[in-house]
Specification:
Elements lengths: L2 H20 L17 E8 L3 E8 L4 E8 L12 E7 L10 H5 L2 H4 L6 E5 L21 H17 L1 E10 L1 H12 L7 E4 L9 H10 L15 H6 L2 H4 L8 E7 L15 H20 L2 E8 L5 H19 L40
Parallel strand pairs: 4-5, 4-6, 6-7, 7-8, 8-9
Antiparallel strand pairs: 1-2, 2-3, 3-5
């Protein structure tokens, strides 16, 4: 080869390789995702002293979504401090869902003295906190990539988020919290589930029907439960818990579906909560057998709604905060003095301006 040509070809080859490596991955695994380095914050909205809503353009999702952040006490007075993070994941069937926790529970009041960022990202109506398989093509929606790759980098730059993280969630969010913890040991220091579907393979048909309710191909997320059994297992909280190190703190709570103290007197039995309560018992038994530091709140009577999840978040908050090294600045409503408001059927789950029918709000 002419040396002069070689001198010019090497830089062009390097550039071509860089371009090819930057292209989105396409493969036969649910782990395939778009480039994480292209995610950007396109809008910021503050309401009050603590609430910050970030609008994020996410390549992993191929759309713009929001994440709500509750800033810790003293945030403005400590411009160089790096903060621990508590992720709080929402449940199924709301769109958008990033504001579910603050609309349906007093998260701001409960965390008023907790020196940690409380991050509530969008998770999609039935995103299930996973990168969708899409018949082996991968690609959007890649929720796992958004939450665990794109978002941490953006939070570090926007609000000085550190690497000390805990994760908690309700219903579908509880599934996601323990799934993420098990799939990514070391990424989180503690995890909590409130009425989560902790064995996604126990009733795969129900999961697939939920996808159909929202117009999706029921096999788009994890494939067929038999033909792609490995993918289903790899995203099943009860099957990935053995990846966690012994002593890892987990908080697991659920009711048994019978009417409890936060339900109206005429409430019937909640079959979904009863099913999830059985899954919680199985998870607790396996987790203890594996040597995890399990705090179980299998509280008996109680149905599937935010009244109980707010209470359980309050009870688990000290565990989550301690795991990430979050101190207390005082003025925190603790679990002992936390008064949960009476639940009014048809109102707790429908924030102002939403008019969705109740059928799609039964599993959150």
């Amino acid at each position: 080869m002419n040396p002069r040509h070689a001198r010019f070809s090497r830089p062009w080859c390097a550039l071509l390789c860089a371009v090819l490596l930057a292209l989105p991955a396409v493969g036969g695994s649910s782990a395939a995702a778009a480039r994480p380095d292209g995610a950007t914050v396109v809008a910021r909205e503050r309401s009050g002293q603590r609430t910050l809503d970030l609008t994020i353009d996410s390549p992993a999702l191929a759309e713009e979504v929001k994440t709500r952040v509750l800033l810790p006490p003293g945030y403005a007075d400590q411009p160089d401090r790096v903060w621990p993070v508590i992720y709080l994941l929402h449940g199924c069937c709301s769109g958008p869902g990033f504001d579910d926790w603050t609309s349906s529970a007093d998260v701001a009041g409960l965390t008023a003295g907790t020196e940690a960022l409380v991050v509530m990202p969008e998770g999609g109506p039935v995103g299930y906190y996973t990168n969708w398989w899409n018949a082996g093509r991968g690609g959007p929606p890649a929720w796992e990539t958004f939450h665990l790759v794109e978002l941490p980098r953006l939070l570090a730059g926007e609000v000085r988020a550190g690497s000390a993280r805990a994760v908690a969630g309700a219903s579908m969010g509880g599934t996601g919290a323990l799934e993420y913890a098990g799939r990514h040991p070391g990424f989180f220091r503690a995890a909590a589930s409130y009425s989560g579907r902790l064995d996604t393979r126990a009733d795969a048909v129900a999961v697939m029907r939920r996808l159909e309710d929202f117009g999706h191909d029921p096999r788009a997320m994890w494939g067929d439960p038999e033909a792609q059994a490995g993918i289903w297992s790899a995203h099943n909280p009860v099957e990935v818990l053995d990846r966690l190190p012994r002593g890892f703190p987990v908080y697991v709570s659920s009711g048994d579906g019978s009417p409890g103290p936060l339900d109206p007197p005429a409430a019937g039995h909640d079959r979904l909560e009863r099913q999830f309560g059985g899954m919680a018992q199985e998870y607790v038994a396996r987790a203890r057998g594996h040597g995890l530091a399990v705090t179980a709140s299998l509280y008996g009577p109680g149905r599937h709604h935010y009244g109980y999840w707010e209470r359980e978040f309050a009870r688990s908050l000290p565990l989550l905060a301690e795991a990430v090294g979050a101190g207390s600045a005082g003025n925190t409503r603790g679990p002992a003095d936390h008064a949960v408001p009476a639940w009014v059927p048809g109102s707790w789950h429908l924030p102002p301006g939403r008019a969705e029918g109740t059928r799609r709000w039964q599993e959150r």
